Amino acid sequence: MDKFLLLQQVLERLAEDLLQAEHAARVAHETATHEENIAENKYDTLGLEAAYLAAGQARRAEAIRQAMVNWRQFRPSPYDASKGIQLGALVCLVDSDGKQQQLFLGPGGGSMKLVSGAQPVQVISCEAPLGRAMLGKCEGDEVSIGDAPIRQQFEVLRVE
């Protein structure tokens, strides 16, 4: 699997998400400032609610912009078995039922599902519980997350 192709897919998806967030912020701002939404009494809160929504969408757009900066600067390096799983690793895990999943460990803000060929790939960050648990592990190691009785265990099958 090509990590740089996955990186491009993440950047494309973030760009799409940014356009949607900016559009939503504009629409909410227009609603908040439209003359028909001026409050006539204390119970008329549509304009106020739209202003809160516009501010939230603007914060979301800024978070996506920052994620794009992080992903543009990100350069996945080849797997080094002496260091174990690090940022940029492409990892294949298998659970106790034998179900496999591909994970691409990247910077924050890019949590999403992608498809590489016919293979689904989950992009996660090192801050995610599973991402944190995988750091430093090698092929054949066990990775577990959660607490009893809801504890999930995986085995690291492959790392690229």
UniProtKB/TrEMBL annotation:
InterPro entries in the record: GreA/GreB_C_sf, Tscrpt_elong_fac_GreA/B_C, Tscrpt_elong_fac_GreA/B_fam
UniProt entry tagged with the keyword Protein biosynthesis: yes
Domain Transcription elongation factor GreA/GreB C-terminal: 85-160
Keyword Magnesium found: no
Molecular function in Gene Ontology: translation elongation factor activity
Keyword annotations of the record: Elongation factor, Protein biosynthesis
Transmembrane domains' residue ranges: none
Source organism superkingdom: Bacteria
Protein name in the entry: GreA/GreB family elongation factor
Organism: Roseateles paludis
